[in-house]
Structure formats: structure tokens, C-alpha cells
Amino acid sequence: MWRHYGFGYTYHQVICLQLFQVLDQHFFGDSGNGLSQVAVAFTARQQLEQDNGFPVSANLLHYISNGAFVKCRLFVCLYYRGFFYFGHDTYYKVSTCTKVSTNLLLCKHYINKQIMNITLTGSLGNISLPLAQQLISKGHTVTVVSHSPERASAITAIQAIPAIGSVDDPGFLREAFKGADAVYTMIPPGFQAADIRQYMRSVGDGYANAIADNGVKYVVNLSSVGAHLPDGPGPAGANHYVEARLNELTDTHVLHLRPGMFYTNFFGSIPMIKQQHIIGNNFDAGVNMVLTHPRDIAAVAAEALDTLSFTGKHIRYIGHEITGGEVAAVLGKAIGQPDLAWIGFSDNDLLYGMMQNGLTEQMAQVYVIEIGVALREGNLLDSYREHRSSAAGSIHSFHHFAEEFAAVYLQGVE
Fold this sequence. Notes:
alpha/beta, 20% strand, three-stranded antiparallel β-sheet, globular, Rossmann fold, 2 domains, 35% helix
């Protein structure tokens, strides 16, 4: 018998069956286990996955983890040619699967899979929401950290577990990371922080301590382009510090993801485009930047957390280079303004405009102005270019994003 403790073990196959009036002995000819009267059915809950030949089990795992498993269903684990009946938190062996009906396709081949407890920071943001959904679809038990109690119902609705509290509370983080096999760390913007960089370093310290205290073995950490610079511009220097703190964890495998500027930031340019028919930043149209779709970050993080295919300490860049002029051309074409121009604003003009739109001076300086200055000076992307061949994401993604952008832009446009 195996006890069920959060599915933190490796097994070969998971399928969900409904109860029919068919005896175990009829299908398998194996009554030596004393459970020959257990009726077993072979109607899978979901369509077989084409690539690996076994039903998706995420919904089933959710039912079990939330105590909603009804009597007329069996949770059956195909493990080294054996079936196990799940009941009262215990697996009971049902059959050794020595004979199977010729009309029954169980699976094409064995699949190694580990179901884990994974904690995600970042609430239900542009990265953490699709990341949580992908991990849940793989059957993992996912806890989502959010500072907002109002998010709890939305987190529960995607079949995740809410952990409500502040990431700058060390005690809360220790509790949130308890029992986690792996965690995803990101530092939310510190809108109210008196010193944004110090806030980021403090949260990074809290993450490192909570991971160490709980013995978490795997971490995927959201960093940024420019984090190779100890005193890097904007948030890059603080991200460098956080990477270094996590790299000090001797018994933990860490993957640092370094994306560029988010595609979704351009949604903030829609009023300017509509009113002035221009787009821009504090650098000229010919300056290169690295852009990243948040969904690409989620996809890379999901694969890493699902497969645990990284060991030691590693970095992975996500994004592609593109100029401001190319951004204007792609977005302009998508919204029917092929002549849309990219304008290089002065630092002061851009700062004034962002503050007029509600950003604090510190937020604007750290997250926008300093990054633009570094791009103009040309040293922010040095490390990215060294690792460009292994970076995830491509410019093709930006063309797809342009369609999303156009859909939002054209809302309300006659």
C-alpha cells in the first residue's frame, strides 16, 4: 500500500476510469489479489493525448486533492504493469495486468512523470496566470501567492491554492513555501517602496531564506536582461543581487530567466498613438532593444518546473532584438497606420509625460528612463548577445502580438 501525500512521487501512468459492471477477473484473469470483485471500467475522462497516448489527469488530481472524489470512480495508476485502486488515501493493488481485452488500448508506452507541489509568486499576472494554468494541466498541485484577498476566489477558480500575504513578509514566505518541491520567484513592482532597489533586494533575501528554511530543491527565478551588471541600470542591478543570493543556496537548483521589455508594455502607448499618431521612448528608432512576450516566459518556466530538467545554477534569456523603428512598422501595419513613426523623446519630456499619467518619479526613472539611457549607450545587451543562440522567443511572436495589439487598439474606433 502507498499512502497519498500530495503526489510527490514518480509513477508511470495515470488514467481515470468510471465504474461499469465488469469484474476485474473478467478483464485480467487475476483473482489472486483478493479483490476480484472490484469492477473496473476503461472509459477515459479525456481524449488521449496524441503525442504520448495517455489521458490528461489534471482534473482528476484536482478532485482528489480537494477531497471531492466520489465512490463511483476509481483512480487507477498503471505502474510497472500493475493497477492500484485509490481509496481512503491509500493505494490498493488490484491487478498485475497479465491479460487485457484485445479491444482495449491502455497506452502506447510508459511515461515517467512526477506530480509536485509548486508555489508561484506573482499572483495572477501576465506570467503567473498562464504558468499556473499550464502546470495545473500537467497535474501538479499549484499554490499561487498574492497580496490581494480579492484574488483568492479567482485563484481557486483555476484549481490552484491561494496563499494571501505580502512577499516582503519573511514569515509569510516561509509558510507559503512550506512543502513545495519547486517555486517560481518574481518580484512584484514596489509602487509604494521608498527605495525600489532596496525593496527588490529585501524581497530577494526573503525568497532565499524561505527556500533554504524549507529545503526547496528547485527554483525558477524571473530576472531581467542586464542582470549580468552588478550596478546595472533600472532593476537590473537589484536582479543581479537576487540572482547572487539564490546562487548561494548550495542544495538548490536554480534557473534564472532573463527577459527583455514586455510586449504588453506597448498597450500603454495606445492613447499616444490615437491622439498624436506617434509611438516612442527615450531612444531613437535605430536603437536595438530586447522584447519578450510574457507568455513565452510562462512557457519556458512551465517546461522547466514540469520536467525539472535543470541542475546547478543556470541563466536563460527569453526574447529577441528589434529596433524602435521596426516596432512602429509592425504595430502601425496591424492597426492600419503604416506611416506610424517612432520618436526618440528627451529623458525629461518622457519623464514628465509618465508622471502626468500617474507614475511616480522613482518608478518612471527606474523602470523606463534608466533602461532607455543604457540602451542608447549600448552596454545593456552584451550578455544577451553572448547567449542569443540559446534564447527562447523570436520576432515571429511579435508579429502575432501585433494582432492582439490591434484588437485592443481598434476597440471603440469607428
